[in-house]
Amino acid sequence: MGKRKGYRYFVIGCLILIFGLALPIGISGLLNQVNASKQFTLTTSKAYSYSNKAFSVTASSDFLKDSDLAVIDVPKGLQFLLKETQKENESSAVEFDEKKNQVVLPAKAFNSQRVKLLFLAEKSGDYSLTAKKYSDEKTEYSNTLKVAVVDRKKTIEKVDSGDVNVPIKAQEVPQVKGKMARAGITAYVTNATEMDAAMANASISEIIVMNDFAFTQYSATGAGEANTTVPARNLVVHGARPGIKVDFRRRSYWLNFNTTKIDVNVYDLDMYGQDFWGPFRLQGNTSAASSYSIQDVNYTGAQFTASYQADFSVAGNVVNKSVNSYVSPFDGIRYSAQTNQTNLEVTNITFKENSHYIGTTENATVLMLGTGGTVGTASIEKGAILDLTGGGDGFSGEGSWTTIQLNGNIHIANDAKVNIKTPIGSSRGGILLGNGSEVLVSDGATLNMEMNGPFTDAYNKNPINIGGGAKFDVESGAHLAITANNQGTGKASLVKTGSNSTFKIGKKERSKFLQMELRQKI
Which residues cross the membrane (predicted)? Predict the structure, then answer.
């Protein structure tokens, strides 16, 4: 038994020795099969191009043997221009495999280790190119090059009725939604440095964000401000296509318009930010009636804007999340935002017809209107939907501890709907009407209020709190529903009225029947 045991150990030892020598060679050989080479690259002079217009990509490589070969898979929607490429390089060495939809690059195609390739896309979008090189049974990959293609003949969408402004024709730039300056230069930006330069240039009236980027110069994760004053002028800022991401971090651009009316329009962007003034802030005299409009925008961060003296409008689909921290999509790191902020602080606000606004806060009032020292008006147009949720316990955060803080008037139009909801256990209130304010829920409009915590009569935290001399008018045919959950032993009023205030419900005899639900659940 002892000999057999010794023999077994001898065999195992030999196997270990053999594999010990062979394994590193095998692993090394395996790793050599797929390598990313710094000497094998794809580059382009611009990160964007126009639809139906050729753009060039330069492939660079250090081919060592004539037998080396590289290929590029052409993505769907992109065309490789073979004849134009051969003419550009004065060589027919570049080939195209139509069956595989591959660009074939033999070593002889590279002149001074480079070859220029021409592509064209008929439709706008993002296109990615990666090259593979085969050499001595090795496979090397280039970097992945992303090119954004923009439709320069895009028609104007959703222009405000009565808008007499016209697009810039001389520059043949992509047309924009909404209002646009009559004259000026269009800037195409691809990074934070270019964005800063474009915002600082008074002659630029349109900024097109071509690709995702972050303000990486602000690498500290703690909250902070990096406010910069830029020339106040009519300005359009938008993504080259919907969903372009920009993490502004601490950057905030301030446009001080004084008494001069300016219009700022931002759309087709997904934004992030730490600064409680917001990425863009308008500041001046309310008499100027300057406006700040957004459309199809998502925002995650501190307050979206504190433009106290500006009129604000919302179109399309907008999601606005006021949070105390967020994870940047660029590096996966959590960045702190200035805390407990509201969504918006503006004078007047209009939610355009058929728009949908989703506004949430982590611990604050959602909408603060009429904060510029002038009575404001919130107009919720036909078909518009507002979903508002004020977070937190209701005893802290910016605002009056309600969901809507109103120094002015709210008009909810026919077929419009406003949904107000508080978190479970929160004592946050619903709508607070300041002294002399007015709310009109029109025939066919809907106002739903779901209060999920024990609100109190103290601190004006009722679902509806009507200040002195204020009016709350629900027309016949409107729908008002107030649901109070998780009240415990609370006995606070669903509707609290101040001195000389009015809470008016339309008569049933009129053309449509008023639906009103006042429910309190324990």
Answer: 7-31
CA 409, 415, 416 angle in degrees (round to 5)? 40
Which among 262, 265, 264 has a CA at the least distance from the CA of 288? 262
pLDDT tens, 330-362? Answer: 999 999 999 999 999 998 999 999 999 999 999
**Which of 366, 360, 359, 301 shows the shortest CA–CA distance to 327?**
301
Q: Is 62 helix (H, G, I), strand (E, B) or coil?
A: coil
pTM: predicted TM-score of the whole model, two decimal places: 0.72
Is residue 469 a contact partner of residue 498, using CB atoms and an 8 Å limit? yes
SS3 of residue 213 by DSSP: strand
Q: Cα(356)–Cα(419) distance, rounded to whole angstroms?
A: 11
Distance CA 214, CA 55 (A): 26
Q: Is 360 exposed, middle or buried (0-12, 13-18, 19+ CB in 10 A)?
A: buried
Across the strands, what pairs with 299? 271, 320
**Please, how many CA atoms are within 13 Å of residue 343, restricted to the half-sphere of its CB?**
29
199-258 pLDDT tens trace: 999 999 999 999 999 999 999 999 999 999 999 999 999 998 899 999 999 999 999 999
Side-chain half-sphere CA neighbours of 174 within 13 A: 25
User: β-strand 69-73 against 102-106: which pairing, if any?
Assistant: antiparallel
- 390 forms beta bridges with 361
Split at pLDDT 50, 70, 90, the class of 292 is: very high
Q: Residue 90: left if φ>0, alpha if ψ -120 to 50, beta else—which one?
A: left
Check if the beta carbon of residue 387 is closer than 8 Å to that of residue 422: no
